[in-house]
Amino acid sequence: MNISQNLRVVVISLLTSALLACSSTTPAPPAATGTVPRPSLAKAWQGQVLIGAAVDEKNIKTQGELIAEQFNSVVAENAMKPMATEPREGEFHFEAADAIVRFAQSHDMAIRGHTLLWHLHTPDWMWQGANGQPAGRDLVLARLKRHIETEVGHYKGQVYVWDVVNEIIDEKQPDCLRDDLWHRVVGPDYVDYAFRYAHAADPAARLYINEYSTEEPAKRRCLVRVVQGLLQRGVPVNGIGHQMHISVFYPTISAIDETLTTFARLGLENQITELDMSLYRWKDNRLYDTRENLLSLQARRYGEIMRMIHNHPDVTAVTWWGVSDASTWLNQDAPADHRDQPLLLDEHGQPKGAFWAVFAAARR
């Protein structure tokens, strides 16, 4: 590391310490040795917002008691995505997702559905036509219709909200939609069809667009443009899912607040759907302060976000993308010295400062 990099690290460390000193005080967790008694976040926030977690068929067995204690909503991290539910055309597999649904129902938990259409999780057969030729628009739409009718129909009356489409926005494109195979083969109205198919399969389900970086102005403007077009065409869009894979350094609370307000003014519901807060900057494996300071900053930032939620009756649920730091996706390919700690519970399932900040932010 050269001199200028050293100076940069020192300056950021000092700024982080200053932020910590100026932040509102988060109640300290109770002093304890060994296991810390845990109040329930779900009970603390009951009647305010649903408190959710992304789960899989494994951790509902290994961490089932903890999940049921802390959360009153779940979403399948991968088990309801298209490549999992229909890996080969017409061959549906709901075993893993069914296990999650049974677990949730046995604990009176709400169930989010994620996701019916995602460019990164579309099986190859969707694009294959007869005799090795590419599939055309009509065939792709027929396949999409059957997939959505089958999956949404299978969970009709059980899944209360669906992320119908996931990560469709590209602010660099003229029409604000991602230039992927869905757009190229079907055209921009593939979004309309996906929502109409889902609504027909379960008219009572709430239907969402799920997107990342919605707090960034250019992305937000594009999402507004796409949503307004859908609403004008009578497409049954009920809400926006804001993924919120964020950092202790960004975005600002005011940017998140502005985004939620923007979509509430369109008459839409908001949910935070994949929340975690990295100690790192995006694609940067350096820590810019001590872990202790960064975890303290994380706690304060989580507290600020949850206090802001009180100003948004349009926000109906906050879902964390994982149960504890032991299984966060941010550590899937991380080296041993780059372990992230983005969630509320540590690798042993014990409350962190972030947990206590979220607990303290609930109204009582």
TrEMBL record:
Entry protein name: Beta-xylanase
Keyword Hydrolase: yes
Tree of life domain: Bacteria
Signal peptide: 1-28
The family this protein is said to belong to: Belongs to the glycosyl hydrolase 10 (cellulase F) family.
Domain GH10: 35-361
Listed EC numbers: 3.2.1.8
Keyword Secreted in annotation: no
Catalytic activity: Endohydrolysis of (1->4)-beta-D-xylosidic linkages in xylans
Active site: 274
Keyword terms, alphabetized: Carbohydrate metabolism, Glycosidase, Hydrolase, Polysaccharide degradation, Signal
